[in-house]
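PROTOCOL LOG
Step 1. Enter all chains and additional molecules of the complex.
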Amino acid sequence: MGKTDLGPPDYRTMLPKVIEKNYGKWKYHEILKPGVLKHVSETGDEVFTVRVGSPRLVSIDYIRDICDVADKYCDGHLRFTSRYNIELMTPKKENVEPIIAAVQKLGLPVGGTGNAISNVVHTQGWVHCHSAATDSSGLVKAIMDELYPYFISMKLPARLRVALACCINMCGAVHCSDIAIVGVHTKPPKVDNSKVTALCEIPTTLSSCPTGAIRKDPSNPKSLVVNDEKCMYCGNCYTVCPAMPLADSVGDGVAIYVGGKVSNARTAPMFSRLAIPYIPNNPPRWPEVVSAIKNIVEVYAKHAHPEERMGEWIERVGWESFFKLTGIPFTEYHIDDFTHAIDTYRTTTQFRW
Amino acid sequence: MTEGISEELKQKVLDYLGTTSKAKNRDVARAIEVDKALVDKAIAELAKEGKIEYLYLGTSYIQLKQQ
Amino acid sequence: MADQDTPLINELEKGPWPSYVKEIKRAAKKNAAAKDLLGVQEQSFKDRITHWKHGGIVGVTGYGGGVIGRYVDMPEEFPNLEMFHTMRVNHPSGWFYTTEALRKVCDIWEKYGSGMTNFHGSTGDIILLGTSTQNLQPCFDELAENGFDLGGSGSALRTPSACVGPARCEYACIDTLDICNNLTHEFQDEMHRPRWPYKFKIKVSGCCNDGVAAIARADLSIIGTWKDTLRIDQEEVRNYVKNGFDIKGIVIDKCPTKALDWDEKKKELVLRAEDCVRCMHCINKMPKALRPGLDRGATLLIGAKAPIVKGAYLSWVLVPFMKMEPPYDEVKTLLRNIWEWWDENGRTRERVAELIERLGLKAFLKAVGIKPVPQMVYKPRANPYVFFE
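Step 2. Run joint prediction.
Step 3. Record the structure below.
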């Protein structure tokens, strides 16, 4: 047995010199232009950062390309952001434009700073996940091709965070994003009872269901049945019991939630809430999903006050106005009927027409 | 990690594992009536010494190394 | 897989945003599994369904996690994907790298895997996508020889992550990178040997802008804050105003507690410190003039999670203010107490927040030895159903 429990490499061995020297001493920063930051230290030192968009699902040769740029201009250091952007840092202002030229030559965009749409946090989708209800990398590519002008500029009222999860397990913080795109199944799992005994632990499978829709077949305790009426297609049973697949080429699709945030600036963090319950999958470019998102972004950009995040704007104008302005129909699906539903029902006579 | 873990405690863990096919760390701590944090450390050391091995069945169990 | 065989995904080579399809094609030139990956992606686009199956248990010696088993459901058509496991590699705090370290990871992955990666996964790990069962151990051994280790998966501590923090951000009120690194090293056993009811995530943000979305997804969110008053450089405030900055519209009117005023006569920003809730908005907008205070620490919040099973939660205040100095014993003890109680009482696949909801916050606070304070709630209860002891 080789080495175990080493833990991650020490970040201190990875820091560029200017960062090491000014660690904890930064005084302020400026955004020089979209994608370019300048941080100034109390020591007087400066570091310039070029933020670069990335598709996240990349080959090792892509990483080597980026390393070449970092070797040439950044003394062999770089970092990534929590939204998969690459950050190339240098104390030399004269390196900024050559870095931009070098990454653009690789076909990569510079941006994602300030009041922009930064990279889309997303999951694996059809490229690697067993429970995906939609693709991730493909849908993100289609969306970002359309939202690209917002990545390379800073013209929105505030920052706008987009995230995508390919099923409602929601790896990543999609449920608190300005726009959250979520893969949804719309058909109950099809139980393959010939495999249940071999693949599944029955008590775990029963308790995995949030609505109690799964029970043992009264006539055969080694079989399971699903009460379709109670199933809301979360797929939690499938995660613990592979004999209950629920992916469906016709039923699977995408839901869009809006108005979430994680930052505590001004208002408390909030969940994203349902705007569009279901749009069928339509690869390779999901045009219906892309145009729905574009519409929401444009209506927000037009109506929100400066510094208002999506959710803050909607809270100010009211959800009735959100549905009216975006032209999105409000349906029975928008009314919550899960655990904390009552908290969302309006208990005041204050509203708008 | 190694300070404070006595050979005596490690032997106690081994003795207990001899009485059962597999156990969770928590079961061991309860059976030999020793603080779980200490037992966790003793178990980690025993694994490094190759005297016990982990068994993953939904959750982690430990057992005496099969000869 | 020739180009004409993948008409659907070829569409995604077009457009201004960088294309992952091009990336798979690059890897496919060198690697048969990556070539098949193009095929299975095309197949999914055609069928509108995933072609991946549940993982069996695969891994490396001594670990119960860090590897996700993955198998394609059409192994005859895509023989090189019959096994296509993921390895999660723990990133250095803050995702800082030397090119030397990154190139090493690339070389190892060229040798043992498909050559496809995620930089990074949602939790923060480097994701190495696609290798066979027999390559897992040698790949891991070589990663370890070069200073890398696997991250967490399953019912274990997941790889903790942190924002850029004091490395390159003036807002950082705590040393996010050191806290993240220190806790990750301390809890290697908890990360690599899953033995809890379900997953547990720790995320560290330097300020309440919360750059790693701790409050939305970390069972324990550690978020930097300060206790004294924010620092104002009036000269720089005047410079902002002189340069046409709309201080009233963008800062004063947006202050959630109306703690700020602009004194037009004196040309001074007036702060009513007792009203400030440290939301960072004014600092975000005037970073040259305003800075966090100096009595710094963290707010610890508990319970965030995505919807599975009982609905999503944001994490809520557990400790309004804790000093964060190495070796961080206070937070380590708290974590151990939380895990002890959860492990003892939790059901399978029950996150700590769901257990707290089931057994009550009162019971939880007692178990971990924390006294109730008003900062934990928006408001006290309205109902009369109190259990007196």
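Step 4. Note key features.
The interface with chain C takes residues 24-26, 36-37, 40, 44, 47, 54, 56, 58-60 of chain B (CB under 8 Å).
The first strand of chain B starts at residue 52 and ends at 57.
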